């Protein structure tokens, strides 16, 4: 699905990675590893077009991403460090807006997605009254709504409790089982039931 | 079109939940009109002469002050990133944000301006021209302000920079805006002034959304 060829990126005269090439096909989970500051977030941002200070080529379904940008954006879901949750809006209003931005978020109803992330009964309170973990859950409710085949997730498990993490892992397993693929960074020991996780370590790539 | 309406509704809802966004520019606008006679001279003849300029400068500064916040909160909580990776056209999102900024700043200022006009003894012939010129001029201010806001949103302290970037572009609007009211107060025709304000609006509406979208991309990808 997604292919990265010969990617090179430096920041403040420090090479983050060079000659980085990998591909991800349907039904695969790729975990990007590396120390803090090794460029994990930078790599993910490059993959979703939020960072353009790199050299190398990116392909989506064998076509260069710059040429099929609209198609790519409609088939990719990105959840970043910042969840994009407005604290003055309620969970329901937040998700309704995300649905407007990305019409592909229509797998289940908003109420059902909120129930899935354990926010049943919290749909109409403003998000600033929710805890950090609950706010994170509002952002992650998008995963239940999404029909996009490619998920790019940056530290999706921060602030989640153990049960929440296990639920998300089961969701990832279901997504790849249905032919989707996931690229994510996490410091958590990832365990996707029934699937092997391919790991790419940026510290090793930088040295090569 | 549905998406555009939803985007405007979201921004207006956000402003309603945070009242200070609406009240601040209006309070600033009103305070200038209250303070000015106290500081300079309460004499009605003098005030009537300077009223068009004072009201227009106050409206312009009120717009400038609120422009800084157009993209700030969306940048801080990651909503802006989501807008950039969404399949919806960024220009449309930007236009919706500018429109809602104008509704909570420029439009409300124009509605409030007759009150200020009476406080500053503006002749009644100038009243209609004042409201009209503000309604035509302030959307341009919002559009231009959003370019500055887009360019400086990635900086921690963009407040001063945005004024330096945008004030020169505001000057034509100020000249023709205040000129409209002055001409009307003296009983001269104002159609020419309004046409110029309209032309500025059309020009900025055609070009600014693309500049704002490009500025946001630079700020986020930087």
Structure, explained:
- The complex is a heterodimer of chains A (208) and B (222).
- Chain A has seven helices and nine strands, in the order E-E-E-H-E-E-H-E-H-H-H-E-H-E-E-H.
- With 208 residues, chain A is an alpha/beta fold.
- A five-stranded parallel beta sheet of chain A has the order 6-7-8-3-9, sandwiched between helices. In chain A, strands 2-1-4-5 form a four-stranded antiparallel beta sheet.
- Chain B has one domain (2-221).
- In chain B, helix 3 (44-67) runs antiparallel to helix 8, helix 6 packs across helix 9 and helix 7 (125-152) packs antiparallel against helix 8 (159-185).
- Chain B is elongated.
- Chain B starts with a helix and ends with a helix.
Helix/sheet category of chain A: alpha/beta
Global Rg of chain B: 18 Å
Inertia-based shape of chain B = elongated
Q: State the helical fraction of chain B.
A: over 70%
Low-confidence stretches of chain B: none
- The number of helical elements of chain B comes to 9
Q: Which chains share the greatest interface? A: A-B, 30 and 23 residues
Mean pLDDT score of chain A, rounded? 88
As a whole number of angstroms, the C-alpha radius of gyration of chain A is: 17 Å
Distance between the termini of chain B: 31 Å
Element pattern of chain B in H and E: HHHHHHHHH
Biggest β-sheet strands, sense, barrel of chain B: none
Which runs of chain A of at least 5 residues are low in confidence (pLDDT < 50)?
none
Residue-averaged pLDDT of chain B: 93
For the secondary structure, the number of strands of chain B is 0
CATH architecture of the largest domain in chain A: 3-Layer(aba) Sandwich
Order of helices and strands of chain A: EEEHEEHEHHHEHEEH
Structural class of chain B: mainly alpha
Measure the end-to-end span of chain A.
25 Å
E-strand count of chain A: 9
According to CATH, the fold-level topology of the largest domain in chain A is Rossmann fold
């Amino acid at each position: 699905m997604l292919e990265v060829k010969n990617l090179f990126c430096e920041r403040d005269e420090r090479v983050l990675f060079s000659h980085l090439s990998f591909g991800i096909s349907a039904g695969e989970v790729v975990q990007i590893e590396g120390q803090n500051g090794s460029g994990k977030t930078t790599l993910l941002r490059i993959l979703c077009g939020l960072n353009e200070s790199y050299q190398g080529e990116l392909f989506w379904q064998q076509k260069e991403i710059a040429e099929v940008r609209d198609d790519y954006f409609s088939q990719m879901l990105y959840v970043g460090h910042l969840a994009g949750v407005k604290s003055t809006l309620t969970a329901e209003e937040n998700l309704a807006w995300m649905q407007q931005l990305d019409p592909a978020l229509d797998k289940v109803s908003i109420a059902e997605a909120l129930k899935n992330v354990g926010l049943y009964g919290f749909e109409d309170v403003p998000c600033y009254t929710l805890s950090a973990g609950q706010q994170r859950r509002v952002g992650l409710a998008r995963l239940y709504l999404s029909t996009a085949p490619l998920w790019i997730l940056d530290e999706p498990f921060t602030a989640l409790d153990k049960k929440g993490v296990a639920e998300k892992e089961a969701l990832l397993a279901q997504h790849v089982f249905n032919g989707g693929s996931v690229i994510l960074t996490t410091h958590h020991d990832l365990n996707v039931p029934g699937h092997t996780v391919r790991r790419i370590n940026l510290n090793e790539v930088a040295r090569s | 079109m549905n998406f555009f309406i939803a985007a405007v509704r979201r921004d207006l809802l956000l402003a309603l939940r945070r009242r200070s966004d609406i009240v601040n520019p209006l309070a600033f606008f009103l305070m200038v009109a209250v303070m000015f006679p106290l500081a300079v001279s309460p004499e009605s003849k003098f005030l009537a002469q300077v009223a068009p300029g004072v009201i227009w400068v106050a409206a312009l500064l009120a717009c400038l002050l609120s422009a800084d916040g157009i993209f700030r909160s969306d940048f801080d909580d990651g909503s802006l990133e989501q807008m950039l990776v969404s399949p919806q056209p960024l220009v449309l999102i930007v236009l919706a944000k500018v429109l809602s900024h104008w509704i909570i700043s420029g439009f409300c200022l124009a509605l409030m301006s007759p009150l200020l006009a009476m406080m500053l003894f503006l002749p009644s012939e100038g009243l209609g021209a004042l409201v009209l010129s503000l309604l035509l001029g302030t959307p341009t201010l919002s559009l231009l302000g959003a370019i500055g806001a887009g360019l400086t949103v990635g900086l921690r302290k963009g407040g001063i920079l945005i004024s330096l970037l945008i004030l020169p572009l505001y000057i034509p609007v100020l000249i023709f805006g205040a000129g409209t009211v002055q001409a009307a107060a003296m009983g001269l025709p104002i159609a020419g002034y309004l046409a110029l304000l309209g032309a500025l609006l059309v020009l900025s509406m055609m070009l600014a959304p693309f500049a704002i979208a490009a500025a946001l991309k630079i700020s986020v990808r930087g």
